[in-house]
Amino acid sequence: MPPRIRSSQALLLNGCSSPLLSSFTPSHTVAAAAGAAQTTRQCPPSQHTQTSYFSTTAPLELTRLRRDFETWLRTQGKRYRDPTPGEPCRYLGNTKQFSPKGKVFPLNPEFISQPVLSESAREKIWRSVMVDAQPLKAVSAKYSVDMRRVAAVLRLKAIEKQWEQEGKQMALPYAKSVLEMVPVNHLTPERPHEPINDIHVHGYTMQQIFLPTSESREFTRADAAKAFGEHILPVDQKMRIPELLAFEKDLVKGEERRTAEENFYEATTKSERDIADRELIKSQLEEKRKLRVDTDRFEFRFEQISVDKAGRKGRSRSAVGWRYGVPYNDRRRGVVKIPTSVE
Amino acid sequence: MVVKIRLARFGRTNSPFYNIVVAHARTARNSHPLEVIGTYDPVPKADTYDKSGKLHKDIKLDVTRARYWVGVGAQPTDTVWRLLSLVGIIEPKHRTPPKFQPPPSAAPAAAQEV
């Protein structure tokens, strides 16, 4: 295969046939010679910027734009290159007016991020539940963090601690930079994280009902719930931490705050213990229905069921096993198949 | 007609799942049976928090009905026979031979001689 000559270089060689020039001449000599030739013989100038390992063409010097950019990086742009920690958002553009905390996307000022729990806050929650053995409800009420969030923090922290023990590498720089962008809550008593008493508003309770009752009758919240529907729960029971009601009532009654808090702590502890007991009994009953037969390879777990569940016609939904003559829509389109629970 | 206790394969491709059914022998495998007395999931599973690596298989069974059907002469297939024998409803068809164990004194004595 003959040696390839780049088209412009070939042009140069053809156009200005100087005895000085050969394909082995170093590139800067070529450029200089071309410059000289341009003045005398009007040769097209060399315009290479690319240098490959096989090319003998020298790269051009920095362009002005490039030079300006480097200067900018050394002066104004330094803050983007080496950011100071704690600075909210670093975006190019209107740099005089930095977006305040919460406005994560400067071009979308309508979006304001909710504050998230900081690393120390999550550690605080984990410590108070796992080390100090406080009930979940009490921790939730103490820091004003939703119960579900407390539970999520505990689950994630458990994984984090396990990974730490296993020596797994964690994406800490990523977490750090994300936490720098969004508003962060460190869980101080004077700054509640989020409302914890929000209840779900049932559609039935949105209607207006004219309910005649006698004047002498005491009409409570429970009665109001009954009026909306038999299955509607009163607000007191719908709250995630109904023990807070007793706490407030204690305060209204004139109890000391300390006593009320102690009562609240006791009540939440008891409720947590009750739930644990209930779960234990449930699992024990389940275990009782099971017979485990261990063989060399597998353990066979026989669960006792009743064929009567199939109903009189044998087509009941609660019947055991795959059903006959009924479509099984596990692969139907448009149905979310992501599991909703983790064992 | 002979009444059998057998498995009816449901589930999907490569993920079998069986109903343990009581059906007439001449009927099709997945046809409507006389009775569904349980299920058998042949895919061995591990417990989520169990690190021992031991696997288990889940079976649901109405033991009383199984006893009844065996009592009135229903004939279990080999696989169902094996399952029913695990619960003690029938005697196992094939007794597993006891594992060979070398006599305890022979091996060390031989080693000493060499």
From TrEMBL, chain A:
Top-rank lineage group of the source organism: Eukaryota
| Molecular functions per Gene Ontology | structural constituent of ribosome
The record's Gene Ontology cellular component field reads:
mitochondrial small ribosomal subunit
Fetch the InterPro entries from UniProt.
Ribosomal_mS45
GO-annotated biological processes: mitochondrial translation
Recorded protein name is Eukaryotic mitochondrial regulator protein-domain-containing protein
Species assigned in the record: Apodospora peruviana
Species classification: Eukaryota, Fungi, Dikarya, Ascomycota, Pezizomycotina
From TrEMBL, chain B:
GO process annotations (BP): mitochondrial translation
What name is this protein filed under? Ribosomal protein S16 domain-containing protein
What cellular component terms from Gene Ontology apply here? mitochondrial small ribosomal subunit
Q: Which HAMAP family match?
A: Ribosomal_bS16
Q: What Gene3D superfamilies has UniProt attached to this entry? A: 3.30.1320.10
UniProt-annotated stretches for the region Disordered: 94-114
Per the record, the similarity remark reads: Belongs to the bacterial ribosomal protein bS16 family.
Q: Which GO-annotated molecular functions does the record name?
A: structural constituent of ribosome
Q: List, alphabetically, the SUPFAM superfamilies matched.
A: Ribosomal protein S16
Sorted alphabetically, which keywords does the UniProt record give?
Ribonucleoprotein, Ribosomal protein
Instruction: Report the InterPro entries cross-referenced here.
Output: Ribosomal_bS16 (IPR000307), Ribosomal_bS16_CS (IPR020592), Ribosomal_bS16_dom_sf (IPR023803)
Source species: Apodospora peruviana
